[in-house]
Amino acid sequence: MMRWSRPWAARRLCLPWTGWASSDWTSSTNYSPGPGLVAIQQVNNETGVIQPLDAVAEQVRSAGSLLLADCAQGAGKLALPDADLIAIAAHKVGGPPGFGALLVRDIATLRPSGGQEKGYRRGTENLPSAAGFAAAIQSRAFAEAMPRLTQLRSRLEQAIVDNCGIIIAAEAERSPAIAAYAMPGVASASQLVQFDLAGISVSAGSACSSGSMKPSRVLEAMGLPPAIASCAIRVSFGPNTSEADVERFLAEWRRIRDRAAARAA
Fold first, then answer.
1. Which fold has domain 25-139?
2. Which residues belong to CATH 3.90.1150.10 in the chain?
């Protein structure tokens, strides 16, 4: 069982512009071995990049640390990784918002501090949300849609490249449910307004910041050139996304690009 006493020191490990941790990530970042908690997203919520967490887990454990996997974007869509702790969220698979779960390999790694269930819970259980979460997972709506979404995304991305767009982290393994695209020369804020007027919901960052006009912190941390990061938008796909939706998005993408080109001429 691992115990840490205050003060805790937290450090942010920045990944390269590809957005994924390579096999030598411990030497290419400022990570130093020793007891600690390494927290990494399974799937980035802006680029869709999938981290090789099973390989990361082996390195983390060999250093005497624990791995916390943020699987909010991956649970119900991808296989869960080999991690010591896994955080999942209900609303990402169609369940009720504001509810989630922490999967723990060894309960002894947690320090009881609550008032219920032998100290491992605070407050009253939210049974309706728990039931809704379970129903959403059992429906397998996202899991069954993934092969179809992979095909839709491939078609969309080929068209985007053909129309002078850039796929963020194209070289990395990515979830078909999320992607980031840049339209060079057209600011993200301008794209958001025009897509919104067309009835299409996109964002310039995570869904949590869909109303923000600030540059994406994720893309900045990845080291993307400002000229690309400032023109990027986030696009998501769900079980109900259809081929017609993709075609509608592409039609508006072309209109936005053509309007920008006409103004620049």
1. Aspartate Aminotransferase; domain 2 (3.40.640)
2. 141-264
Tokens read off for 24: 């030598």
Dihedral (CA of 152, 50, 221, 104) sign:
positive
Residue 147: exposure state from Cβ atoms within 10 A (0-12, 13-18, ≥19): exposed
Residues assigned a catalytic role: 208
Angle between helices 188-197 and 243-264 (to 10 degrees): 130
141-264 — its CATH code? 3.90.1150.10
Query: How would you write the pLDDT of the chain (265 residues) with one tens digit per residue?
Result: 344 444 456 666 666 555 555 555 555 455 565 678 889 999 999 999 999 998 888 888 888 889 999 999 999 999 999 999 999 999 999 999 999 999 999 988 888 888 888 888 888 889 999 999 999 999 999 999 999 999 999 999 999 999 999 999 999 999 999 999 999 999 999 999 999 999 999 998 655 554 555 668 888 888 889 999 999 999 999 999 999 999 999 999 999 999 999 988 7
CATH 3.40.640.10 spans which residues of the chain? 25-139
Q: How far apart are CA 186 and CA 209, in angstroms?
A: 19
